[in-house]
Amino acid sequence: MRVLAVDVGFGTSDVLLYDSEAHEENRTHLVVPSATQVVAREIREATRRGAPVVFTGPLMGGGPSTVAMLRHVEQGLPFYADPWAAKTFCDDLDEVARMGVRLIDPGEAAGLLRAGAVAVRSGDLRPGDLLAALSLLGEAKPLDGVAVAVQDHGEAPPGVSDRVFRFQKLAELLGDAKDLARLFFTAERIPTYFTRMRAAVSCVAGESLTRDLPCVVGDTGPAALWGAALTAGGAPCLAVNYGNGHTLMSLVTGARIDGLFEHHTGQLTPERMARHLRRFAAGELQNEEVLAEGGHGVLPVSAPFALGEVELRVTGPNRRRFAGSSPHEVEAALHGDMMITGCYGLLEGYLAAIGPDTAGAP
Question: Which of 135, 132, 169 minimizes the C-alpha distance to 154?
Answer without folding.
Answer: 169
